[in-house]
Amino acid sequence: MDYVVICTVALVVSALTLFSGFGLGTLLMPAFAFFFPINVAVAATAVVHLANNLFKVVLVGKHASMKVVIRFAVPAAIFAALGAFLLGYLSEMEPLVRYTLGSRTFEVTAVKLIIALLIAAFSLIDLLPGFQNLAFDQKYIPVGGILSGFFGGLSGLQGALRSAFLVRSGLDKEQFIGTGVVSAVVVDVSRLLIYGVTFFSKHFATLGGHGETGLILAGIFAAGLGSFIGVRLVKKVTIGTLQRIVGGLLLALSIALALGFI
């Protein structure tokens, strides 16, 4: 069942992310959270995200505007590292609350609570009409890199902010997609370096011993297949109904995470 969940989410969402408003990490990270500790789920998602974006670079990277990439991705990389360091720090904190329901004990930790709040915030972007056309003037592109990079490093949630800051950067559709993909690769490399130094390496033997490394590899393959399909079949820029469903599910997930159920 774990392989079915991860591969299905990775394939379907990856096929849609080239053209829709939400990102692969937005859904894949919660899926990994069902099987990994939340900090490892963020890092595992980053591995799949990077591999998938490298594949996308082959498909659409030639259309990227390097001028915009530099303005956006350089500050994004710096603040992605800071966000990743903060995730490592929060992961070492003792639980804020422990409580028992029936025979089960649940823990509310700082990292779960913060990521739950971020998931809830980003889900509202898909649910509230006022956020549907969220966009910022191109002079704020470096600010967008800072915000997108930081939250990407902290929680893996960066796609919505990246799109909002790049959509009015004067790029055509192909340039917009290519620029977003190249920028995402820069952020992924930055945060993965920090994850590797801080906490991911500590869990690597455990993950491999229980076969969960296979989930990451399966997610990489499924996401790559999804991108391959998406480039050829998906025509719409946004998929409104699906975005609302995704937003509702993410909001419910954030509540479960904040309560320590996950």
Walk me through the structure.
It is built from 10 helices and 2 strands. By secondary structure, it is mostly helical. The protein has one domain. It has a two-stranded antiparallel sheet with strand order 1-2. Helix 2 packs antiparallel against helix 3 and helix 4 runs parallel beside helix 6. The mean pLDDT is 80.
Question: What would a concise description of this structure say?
Answer:
The protein has 262 residues and is mostly helical. The chain has helices at 2-17, 24-33, 38-60, 66-91, 110-127, 141-155, 159-166, 173-209, 213-233, 240-258, and strands at 97-101, 104-108. It has one domain.
Q: Indicate the overall shape.
A: globular
Please state the average pLDDT score.
80
Task: Provide the β-strand percentage band.
Answer: under 5%
Neighbour order of strands in the largest sheet: 1-2
Distance from first to last alpha carbon = 17 Å
Number of domains: 1
Number of strands: 2
H-E string: HHHHEEHHHHHH
Instruction: Please summarize the sheet with the most strands.
Output: 2 strands, antiparallel
List key phrases describing it.
262 residues; mainly alpha; two-stranded antiparallel ribbon; 10 helices; 4% strand; globular
Write the layout of secondary structure elements.
Layout lengths: L1 H16 L6 H10 L4 H23 L5 H26 L5 E5 L2 E5 L1 H18 L13 H15 L3 H8 L6 H37 L3 H21 L6 H19 L4
Antiparallel strand pairs: 1-2
